[in-house]
Amino acid sequence: MNTEQAGSIIKALRRSLMVPVFYNEDYDVCEKVMSICFEEGIEMFEFTNRGARAAENFTRMQELVKTRYPGKYLGIGTIKTPADADLFVKLKPDFVVSPIVNLEVGAICADNDVPWMPGCITPTEIHLALTNGAAVVKIFPASLVAPSFIKAVKAVFPDINLMPTGGIKADIVILKEWLDAGVLCVGMGSELLERELIQQKNWDQLRDKIQKARQLILSCVTD
Questions:
Q1: Is the peptide bond before 141 cis (omega within 30 degrees of 0)?
Q2: pLDDT tens digit string along 7-53?
Q3: CB-count exposure of residue 148 (10 Å: 0-12, 13-18, 19+)
Q4: Which among 111, 118, 181, 203 could disulfide-bond with 150, CB atoms 3.0 to 4.6 Å apart, if both were Cys?
Q5: What are residue 18's phi and psi, to 5 degrees?
Q6: Amino acid 44: pLDDT
Q7: Residue 193 has pLDDT above 60, yes or no
Q8: Paired strand residues for 97
Q9: What is the pTM of this model?
Q10: How many domains in the chain?
Q11: Planar angle of CA 201, 143, 218, nearest 5 degrees
Q12: Order of strands across the sheet with 137-139?
């Protein structure tokens, strides 16, 4: 694994504190949602491999990041199989996120110097991920555990970088509990990127929601 690249990703995650997680078949929608996130100060964006146009849209989004948002990071998520990993590492993502620990996926990421963030829900899975090169461990689904789980894990793996994802709401009490427990950042899907607003293309309200969520999570570490 490229430790310099992994280090840059971890620093950006620490600054952003949140990672939007998103997929849409319509490229224009993808472009708009990602652009709003980046313009509101979020440095990371996870586009998920959840539809037929994932590779096509991801490629176009990458070009946009290079030309309009240099210094921001675009990764690919929902990478479950070696075939998925082979396809997407050729597209040069900044990072790869998985909902599971597939060691073949981890090996492909390592061979291509792409930081790997596998999904875990038990200490055994976490240990397996760490010993096979995970840069960050995604706790998924986070709705099944509580911040107390993070504290217990950190007691055993003190240097681990954790990113709980799934069911975390943009609520100051909830966000502060996770951050105080010692997570690096949180992943947020529909809790942040509200489906109804996106379906209606209500970009002003979506921007306002992202802006407020960003302010909330920053206040959790500056209070």
A1: yes
A2: 999 999 999 999 999 999 999 999 999 999 999 999 999 999 999 99
A3: exposed
A4: 181
A5: -140, 150
A6: 97
A7: yes
A8: 117
A9: 0.96
A10: 1
A11: 65
A12: 119-120, 137-139, 162-164
